[in-house]
Each structure stands twice: as C-alpha cells, then as structure tokens.
Amino acid sequence: MKYNLLKQNIQKNVTLSDAELENICTYFQPLQIQKKEFLLTQGSVCKFEGFVIDGCFRIFTIDKKGNENTLYFASNDWWLMDIDSFMNQKSSDLNIQALEDSTLLLISREDKLALYETVPVVEKLFRIMSQKAIVAWQRRLISNHCQTAKERYFHFTTTYPNIVSKLTDKQVASYLGITHEFLSKIKKNS
To answer: Where is the signal peptide (predicted)?
Structure first.
C-alpha cells in the first residue's frame, strides 16, 4: 500500500509492467521521520534519493551570515535529495528538514545503480524526471529575475496551496528571497 503513490508517480513518466513496478519498489526502503528532524545536514554526504509519501520537507542552505535560503519544498508525491552530493558523493551544501511528521521511500546510490542494470527503462525514467526538474529550476530562475516579489508570492500561493498551508511566513519569505517583514507588507497590501 505504501508503494502505490510511488508506482503512480513512475507511471506518469514511463510505462512498466506490474512485475517491473514491484521489482522497482523492492529497492526503496520506507522511513518515518519526525517534525523538525533533519534527513540531511550541510557537510554530510547525501546517500539517498527520497520520494515523499506523506508529509512536507524544506530543502535549504545556510549562508556564511547564518541566513537560511530555501531552495524548495517537497510534499506528497515529490522527490528530494542533494543531487550534487548524491551523484558525486561529496559534502552537501543543503539541509533537508521535515516540517511535519513524514513518511518517505529512500533509495541508496548503490541500489539506484543496480536498478539501472536490472530494469533498464528506469534510466529513461530518471532522465525524464531530471529533465522535468531542470525545466522547473529554469522557470524558477526566470521568475526570480523577471517577477516582482509580490508576483512570485502570488504565483507560489496559487500553484502550491497545499504546501503553503504547512509553512510559516518566515519559510515562505526564505523561499521567495525576501525578508519576513517585506512578506508581511505584501500580504497586508493584498
């Protein structure tokens, strides 16, 4: 039952038999994580790729001044990891923290490589997913350069209402790249 959402996510990108889907699921290990617990911290090596079954996570970095800069949030049916650390097995620049009690499915780097060998279409699956992620990052970069903070706020709140409801204003401001005070002004004048 816990693998149904993963199977649905996979089937959005590639067509697989039931046997192939079942085989893929055997490579993923379930993990329960508590609110405020860290799945990854800056300086450690990311040894997993995660799929969120239930819950919400904040993926962020802390700069030299101690400011938190949120890259993205991951909720149900989203993938999360530090791709640079995961692929290159180097120290992570990111923190991944649960914003609520959450359930994930994790696959290790070794198991992912083994899965590529046993079910070759999985490589196509992760290529498609990577391309979609790059498109999303590109759109976010364009938005950050071409939209006002107010436009970015309204786009975020209308695109991801189920995530916004789980966040503090400070977390939203960090994601938008603005101060908490400026976000308050945007909300007050809306």
So the answer is: none
Residue 61 contacts residue 93 (beta carbons within 8 Å): yes
CA distance 113 to 123: 9
**111: enclosing H helix or E strand:** helix 109-118
The verdict on residue 183 lying in a domain is no
Name the one residue in this structure whose structure tokens are 């409801």.
Answer: 165
Torsion of CA 116, 118, 120, 125, to 10 degrees: -60
Residue 22 Cα to chain centre, angstroms: 23
Res. 1 pLDDT band, cuts 50 70 90: low
How far, in whole angstroms, is CA 8 from its chain's centroid? 17
DSSP letter for 101, please: S
Tell me the whole-structure pTM to 2 decimals: 0.91
Quote the crossing angle between the two packed helices 180-188 and 149-159, to the nearest 10°: 80
Report CA-CA distances (Å) from 150 to 3, 89, 104, 105, 145: 38, 38, 33, 35, 13
Domain extent, residue 77, equals: 4-118
Distance CA 155, CA 147 (A): 10
Determine the average pLDDT of the residues in 112-128: 92
What's the residue count for the chain?
190
- Specify the number of domains making up the chain: 1
